[in-house]
Amino acid sequence: ATPLDQEVRLTIRESIQSLTNKFDFTYLKGINKDSKGSAQDTGYTLEPGNVKFKFVNPKAKQGDPKEILEQNTRKYTEVMNQKIAGPKDFDLDLIRAPSDPGTYEHANATIVALVRNSEAIGIGRTIRKFERSFNGKFKYPYTFINDEPFSDKFKKKMQSYSDAPMEFITIPRELWDRPESIDAKKQDELMQIMEDHDVGYAKMLSYHNMCRFYLGNFYLLPELQKYRYYWRIEPNVDFYTDIKYDVFKYMEAKKRIYGFTINLYDIDRSVETLWPETLKFLNKGDNYKYVNKNGAFQWLLDDLQNPRNAKTANGYSTCHFWSNFEIGDMNFFRSEAYMEWFKHLDSTGKFYYERWGDAPVHSIGLALFADKKDIHWFRDIGYSHDPYLNCPHSDDTSGCKTGLLGQWEHLLDQNCMANWIDYSMEDTIGIY
Ligand code: GDP
Ligand code: MN
Fold first, then answer.
1. Less Cβ crowding at N or C end of the chain, within 10 Å?
2. Whole-angstrom distance, CA of residue 228 vs CA of residue 30
3. How confident is the model at residue 56, as a pLDDT?
4. Residue extents of the structural domains in the chain
5. Pocket lining for ligand 1, CB < 6 angstroms
6. If you measure from the C-alpha of residue 359 to the centroid of ligand 1, how many angstroms do you get, rounded to a whole number?
7. Strand order in the sheet with 383-385
8. Which residues contact 141 (CB under 8 A, 6 or more apart)?
9. Is 180 among the catalytic positions?
10. Minimum CA distance residue for ligand 1 atom 15
């Protein structure tokens, strides 16, 4: 073994030890496939005060992190090269675009954009692409959200991009601002340390507010109470696919809770205690009851490709659904399980003392409290937010290179999608 090799092995061992010692994990090596060959999440205990998860390493994955990355990249490429025209587990002819969006019976859904007045051009660019890709055919209403009132200029601009209904909302201050209970000086000190470790946005108070807002208070906005589903968009993202079916009606028909396109590792330093805090919550009272027995535990805990992350994040792989694209069922995020957990996280103050992002928090919540089969990878939707993309092999997609996650070679190891495919997807659905 080369010195580097040894170092990596040591890291894995330490990582396992740290998990086992600190958080009562058990690491099992061995085969973990059922008779049909699909991976099973068998390793967990759900009892009052004794919630444990085991990471079970499926036989299919062996080797050092570099080899694992190669295997995972091959898997990703293999799947991305399969042709797709939409989800394969539903008859899309039942939910085609209407000839007249004006008289169409929409699903109970809205397109959501949290933006600043200063981002009018960027969100305008997004909307033009989004209209061409999807909403020009369906005309779902837009909901624009801001922590300050939208200017008339902003509103007029948005209305020039689409004739779909639009609502412009100012977030009540108490749902956005940093809570009084947060010690600003303590935050400043801790965020300086985070910034020294290159954690993006660490010192930007508004970013902390944004993340916390999207995780909890967003779903409570009075204007959103009338909706069940939302599709989040952001400034300067791209859509490459002519989407010919009603994505919201697919969600509804299949009882999907969440849809995503891109799956990544996070900055480990930004979420060091997110998983330990979560275990603390689950081990309090009878909170264990919230855990879904078919959760995406393996995906949450995998430490094969990126052991350093799992170590720094104390057991959490840091894999997350990239939340600048998300299609969600708000009934889930308004549920007691999610809300109680969010309240616990909020009570720790660590949306400010650490820099917990909205993506990893959403992702852990979904992986624990939702059935993994209700979380859907929209592999068919070509999408990008700098610097990553999801580019399917499909006749309806143009302008991106099939299967390319990103232009930057050094970022390709950030892909976590193979773990999702291996641990959370049924072979026959969505892929082949
Ligand atoms: P990144 O994608 O993580 O680099 O973060 P962004 O800067 O794109 O922010 C995520 C989303 O939140 C975008 O839609 C932004 O427009 C929005 N956002 C971030 N900060 C603020 C803020 O202070 N006010 C408002 N109104 N929107 C914000
Ligand atoms: Mn963004």
1. N
2. 42
3. 79
4. 3-87+254-424
5. 114-116, 119, 146-147, 206-207, 210, 234-235, 324
6. 13
7. 238-239, 383-385, 388-390
8. 110, 111, 164, 165, 166, 167
9. no
10. 115
The one catalytic residue among 131, 272, 277, 326: 326
Sorting pLDDT into bands at 50, 70 and 90, what band is 260?
A: very high
How many CA within 13 A on the CB side of residue 166? 18
Over residues 378-401, mean pLDDT: 97
Average pLDDT of every residue of the chain = 90
CB 57 within 8 A of CB 297: no
Residue with the smallest CA separation from ligand 1 atom 14 is 234
> Using CA atoms, how far apart are residues 70 and 56, in angstroms rounded to an integer?
20
Asked whether the predicted pLDDT for residue 25 surpasses 70, the reply is: no
- Does ipTM surpass 0.95 in this model? yes
Tokens at residue 376, please? 């859907």
100 is written with which tokens? Answer: 């007249």
Q: Whose CA is nearest to atom 3 of ligand 1?
A: 324
Model pLDDT, residue 17: 43
Q: How far is the CA of 359 from the centre of ligand 2 (A)?
A: 11
Report the separation in Å between the CA atom of 208 and the middle of ligand 2, taken as the mean of its atom positions. 14
Give the ligand whose atoms come closest to the C-alpha of residue 211: 1
Q: Relative to the alpha carbon of 264, which ligand is closest? A: 1
pLDDT at 428: 54
Distance 29 CA to ligand 2 centre (A): 38
Query: Residue 411 is encoded by which pair of tokens?
Result: 């970022």
For 286-333, write each residue's pLDDT tens digit: 999 999 988 999 999 999 999 999 999 999 999 999 999 999 999 999
Nearest ligand by distance to the CA of 146: 1
- Please write down the long-range contacts of 64-70, taking CB distance under 8 Å and 24 or more positions apart: 64/5, 64/8, 64/9, 65/8, 65/12, 65/304, 65/305, 65/306, 65/307, 66/8, 68/304, 68/305, 69/305, 69/413
Residue to mutate, 118, 210, 212, ligand 1, most ligand atoms under 8 Å from C-beta: 210
pLDDT digits (tens, 9 = 90+) for 84-132: 999 989 999 999 999 999 899 999 999 999 999 999 999 999 999 999 9
The percentage of the chain sitting over the pLDDT mark of 90, rounded to a whole number, equals 81
End-to-end, the C-alpha distance of the chain in Å comes to 38
CA of 252 to the centre of ligand 2 (A): 27
Residue 431's pLDDT is 55
